[in-house]
Amino acid sequence: MLGASRKKGQSIRMQHNISDDSKDRIPRPTDLANTCDIPDFLALPERAKKPRRTGVTHVLDKGMPTPVLEALLLQRADLVDFLKIGWGTAYVDPSTRERIAVCAAMGVKVCLGGTLLEVSAAQQRLPELCRWAARIGVDTLEVSNGLQLMTRHRKAAVISELAQDFTVLAETGAKSKDVPVVAAEWADELESDLESGAQLVITEGRESGTVGLYDSDGAVRPGLVDAITNRLPLEKVIFEAPKRAQQVWLIERFGTGVNLGNVALDEVIPLETSRLGLRADTAGLLSVAVGLEEATA
């Protein structure tokens, strides 16, 4: 086995050696919700509650200070499903374990970046990575091949092995703009990743939103999207979409329940307004448009 499973019934807080008293130091989103006047008078598209299978929001954390992360999650943790600690930042950040504990207390799943796993695999250090991940409270790993260091067969084997102990998110697509994007090959790899045991698959877009699913100008490759969604269940795909225009395109195409990834944490609330038709970009595309049309008739 590559990883060390968490003992049954053992909480993440126990793993971190965090005392029960420390719970009082980490507020929860429900505490904020209970003290706020949250309106409900508008007819808006329905949003699934966590844990949800559709409308997933996956955010990218580049190593923000713990107090900042805690403050942002206090406001919006109910809107965040996965927080990915990007690239290899978890390996060099001394506050990684503390930040993971904050996410756990807020009900947000933490995922280590795929590049860290790719480097670990290339150096034959996957068992060490898995033991460390379990020790610091991470139960979700991203398996990617953005550096093009693994064969598809090797990637499938890694997913299958890791899926015995972790939730696996598998990403398809290269980091380099020079690698050709072949729609059928992407669909084949994504399908293989799911068959190998990945819970969800991710389409590469990078933080820049200018590779993989997007051209160098950040425009969506519609033929690639079609090839993917013609073969895979939509609820199994997370589309990396760091830019607002990309998010809007995907919401317009697939609706409120599309899964979006690599979202900046400070853009989560603006994204939610786009999902709900509370932003001009999407107001005419969702069911709320009916009410708007009646009001302006």
TrEMBL record:
In which family does this protein belong, per the annotation? Belongs to the phosphosulfolactate synthase family.
* Enzyme Commission number(s) of this protein: 4.4.1.19
GO MF annotation terms? phosphosulfolactate synthase activity
**Name assigned to this protein:** Phosphosulfolactate synthase
Could you confirm whether the keyword Lyase appears in this record? yes
For region Disordered, the annotated ranges are: 1-28
InterPro entries for the chain: Aldolase_TIM (IPR013785), ComA_synth (IPR003830), ComA_synth_sf (IPR036112)
Report biased composition (Basic residues) as residue ranges.
1-10
Q: Does the keyword Lyase apply?
A: yes
Q: Give the record's keywords alphabetically.
A: Lyase
Note the Pfam families from the entry.
ComA
Compositionally biased tracts (Basic and acidic residues): 18-28
Q: Which organism is it from?
A: Kitasatospora kifunensis (Streptomyces kifunensis)
